[in-house]
Amino acid sequence: MDDLALNYQSDFHAILQMIADARRKAAYQVNATMIDLYWGIGEFVSNKAVQDGWGRSTVKALSEYILTQEPGIRGYSPQNIWRMKQFFETYCDKPELGTLLRENTWSNNLHIMSKTKSDAERLFYLKLASREKYKAKELERQIDSGYYERLMLSDGKAPSAISHAAPANIIRDMYMLEFLDLPEPYREYDLKKAILKNMKKFLLEIGRDFIFMGEEYHLQVGKNDYYTDYSDSLIIPILAQAA
């Protein structure tokens, strides 16, 4: 970077941030438009199923017709068109979820629709995936590991939202730590050492908005050096929103 660029680095960064924001907005708009399209197709097919008896064979013929008229187009297999119908029928009486549905990708919506058992669970994962900006693989992992059920067991009631303010024992009560290969029963020392060896996996389990500070963190106060020990709380939440 030359001297002129260094002088204007903060200004240049502001422009770069504007570009990134515009890209995110464009991606959101494209995704929302696609969800609206799939919703409309699902509504059409659902109505035809009721009025004219459309079934899987008709949907297969529809898929073949679309692919003939639009060679190379993707997303209109018989299976996906049938999922559009199911998507509409799952949420048609829940207009309050429209924004959350559009904030999630089609893949995320499919995972939530096919792998959840109740409206409360669907709402939970829609909010979680929207807030955490989960990709399909990350969301699928959370659903398959029973994250919602674990929260219910830890709190005794269905969670309505995700909070940054978690109780101190949340690690033991909620998170899936099978990858640590801990002995039974295990000591606090065993947990600490296992987490240090598996920090990457552990952070993926915890989720976003956390940072690893290490076993000791150096602090300088005046002319004195201090080393704080994080043996009891290795993961420190980043509460940038509250700053």
| Annotation, overall tally of beta strands | 4
In helices, the fraction of residues equals 55-70%
How does the major sheet shape up?
2 strands, antiparallel
The first-to-last residue Cα distance is 31 Å
Helix/strand/pairing class, anyone?
mainly alpha
Beta-strand portion reads 5-15%
- Shape label: extended
Number of helices: 12
Task: Give me the side-by-side strand order of the main sheet.
Answer: 1-4
Rg (C-alpha, Å): 24 Å
Helix-strand sequence: HHHHHHHHHHHHEEEE
Average pLDDT value?
Answer: 79
Q: What are the segments in which pLDDT stays under 50 over at least 5 consecutive residues?
A: 163-176, 230-243
Task: Please characterize this protein's 3D structure.
- With 243 residues, the protein is mainly alpha-helical.
- It has helices spanning 3-7, 9-52, 56-69, 78-91, 98-103, 106-115, 119-132, 136-144, 147-155, 170-174, 188-197, 199-206; strands at residues 210-212, 216-221, 224-229, 235-237.
- Strand 2 (216-221) and strand 3 (224-229) form a beta hairpin.
- Helix 3 crosses helix 4, helix 6 (106-115) runs antiparallel to helix 7 and helix 6 (106-115) runs parallel beside helix 8 (136-144).
- The longest helix is centred in the first third of the chain and has 44 residues, at 9-52.
- The protein starts with a helix and ends in a 6-residue tail after the last strand.
Name some characteristics of this structure.
mainly alpha, two-stranded antiparallel sheet, 4 strands
Outline:
This protein has 243 residues and is mainly α. The chain is built from 12 helices and 4 strands; from the N terminus they run H-H-H-H-H-H-H-H-H-H-H-H-E-E-E-E.
